Structures are given as C-alpha cells and as structure tokens.
C-alpha cells in the first residue's frame, strides 16, 4: 500500500474517513473541517483538543483514529484501480453549487472519462426528477423538455438519480440530444443501481462530460433512507430542478422541495388533477413554490439558458422522406397511424384498428416498422407514443 502520509493523499484519505464516519450527519463533519481548516487538520489534533471540540463521549470521537485512516487508504487504492476519484469539499472538482448547501458532504466519489475539475466548471446543471411509475404523458414531456434544453445556447448538464421512470428517461434523452448527464446513485461507487441500467452507465462512462456520482462509501446497499440522502445531492448540485411527474409524497417531490429550500429555481409539469402521478407537481404549483411549464420550447428561456431555434421537421415530412418510395398506399397508412399515435399518446394497436377501421395485420406491421425506424416507442403493454428525438436529430 502506498504511503497515505503523502500530503496530497493524506487530505484525500482524511476526507474519505470523515465522509464515512459522519455520512448521515454531514454538517457535523463540515463544522470540524471549518473549525480546524481541512480534513487532514482534524486528524492532526491531539486527544485533548478533539475532546474539547467534539466532546469525549460523542459517538464519533472513538472513530477519529489511525485505524480508520488505514481503512480509507486501502479504499483509496481500490478506487484508483476502479477508475474512480474522491473529490474533497473546496477542491476544483467539487460542484460549486453543492458547496453552498448546509448539508453538503465532505466529498464525492466520482467516475467519469472527464477530469472532475472539468465536469462542473463553467457549465449549468439542471436536474430532472420524478416518479418511477412514469406514464406515457410523463415520458413524452420529459423527452420534449430535454430536447428543448438541448436547443438552447447553453448546453447544461442534466442531473438525475438513475432510477427507473423519469430519471432514466432524462439520462437517455440527454445522451440522445448530445447533452452531458450526471447520475447520482444511492449506493457505493463500486456498484450500479438498478442493475438493469448497467448498459446505460457504461455508455455514460464512455461519454465526455458524463459522470456517476455518490457520497456513499463503497459497499453501501440501496436501503430506503439512502434515497433521501441521495436526493439532496441532486438538488444541491443543480441551479434549477424540473419535476415532470411525482406523487404528493414521492421522492421526486421531496427532491423538488429540497431544491426550493436551497433557494434554487423550481419548475413543474402540470398534470390532470385526478392523476396521482401529477399530484406532487400540481401541489407545488398551487403553493407557488414552482413555476408551471406550459410550453417546452419556452423552458430554455425560463431557465435563462438562451434559445437557439432549430428547425424541427414535421412528423409527416419525415415520414414522406423516409417511406415515399414504398408506394402511395403504404405511405398513407403509415402517416395515418403515426398521426393518430401523436394525437393519442399511449394508444394500443387494437385501439388504432378500431378508430381508423384498418385490419389488425396492417396496423401491427405499420407500428413495427415505425418503431424499428425510431418514429415511435412501444412499451411492454404495447402502448405507442411518438419518439420525440427523431425529429430533432433529423432536422
């Protein structure tokens, strides 16, 4: 093991140790750092000084020892082999907005192909959060919002929690639209949660400007309370938070309230008043904590990102250019099916058959072709919706 008493390594090892010991009480750790000047200075004090500051009977007092530093030094060696870094509060790679929060962690574990000091320096971070129980409405508008942000003069980082539903939709849309994206996970940096998103994580780690971030030590499991602790990182590192769908007491709503408590801008996508998945958004708008999103193309201006208009091709124009050579009848059927899906988000092939009075075989073939060419998306229940990325990427 390398000598962790090297001054650069020593500060990092001490930061890792404080983060692990005071993980659920980060303010206590930061008070020590501010009092003594640095993580390393905390461990340089004699017992009498530490007793006077922390108290001799504090549950943390006995953990501020050499053995804990040795444990962190071994962890640091493994982190480097894993392609991970630990950035301490105050270092260039630490998110500047997160540093302003009263419950900011001593440090962050970061995995990225981009150096930490380049991830958050000089670039806005916008968080997009919401429910795991994502509706076709929520998915459609989450993608539209990310698409609109991608057409702004500024190219912000899209931050989310990597969970199913709104989170992973926001990450995937950011990748598709060419925006950097950061996933804040509720487990150790040596793990990916949920495992089903491992392929997305690998793509992010290969993409410049993207990162996976956590303040949890390696080996941490995804217990329920960790999600609440994770949410403060998402809200804290972002200049603005967008909530697209969330229940009244959902994790997305809690993240949004945290953002508001930090004095950050908050935007919500309004939904039906009888839809539980939109209850959190509607309540925050009613309480005037959040500004309603009424026009996705106007969100960039609302966020102060500047709007660089880009010609977005109409769906029918794209369909004609793609299928014009297939014959007039086939092209007309594809256009009719696509138009109906655009106007009836979440519709199934059976419903399309009834409404358009077309044979099921023709509709199924049309949906299959439209999906394979990226014009529509179909979920496991065969609900169809327009893929918003197609027009933007082809324009």
Give me the count of strands.
11
Q: What is the name of the CATH topology of the largest domain?
A: Rossmann fold
Dominant shape: elongated
pLDDT below 50 for ≥5 consecutive residues: which ranges? Answer: none
Number of domains: 3
CATH-level-2 architecture of the largest domain: 3-Layer(aba) Sandwich
Helix fraction, binned, reads 40-55%
Mean pLDDT: 91
The end-to-end distance, rounded to whole angstroms, is 54 Å
Global Rg:
24 Å
The assembly state of the depicted protein chains is: single chain
Strand content: 5-15%
Strands of the widest sheet, in order across it, are 1-2-6-5-4-3-7-8-9
- Find the structural class using helix and strand composition: alpha/beta
Largest sheet: 9 strands, mixed
Supply the number of helical segments: 18
CATH class call of the largest domain = Alpha Beta
List key phrases describing it.
single chain, 395 residues, alpha/beta, Rossmann fold, Arc Repressor Mutant, subunit A, 9-stranded mixed sheet, two-stranded antiparallel ribbon, elongated
How does the SSE layout of this entry go?
Elements: H1 7-21, H2 26-36, H3 39-42, H4 47-54, H5 66-81, E1 84-88, E2 107-111, H6 116-119, E3 125-130, H7 136-150, E4 157-160, H8 166-177, E5 181-184, H9 198-206, E6 211-214, H10 224-236, E7 240-245, H11 251-261, E8 265-268, H12 279-286, E9 291-292, H13 299-302, H14 315-323, H15 328-343, H16 349-356, H17 360-372, E10 376-378, E11 384-386, H18 388-394
Parallel strand pairs: 3-4, 3-7, 4-5, 5-6, 7-8, 8-9
Antiparallel strand pairs: 1-2, 2-6, 10-11
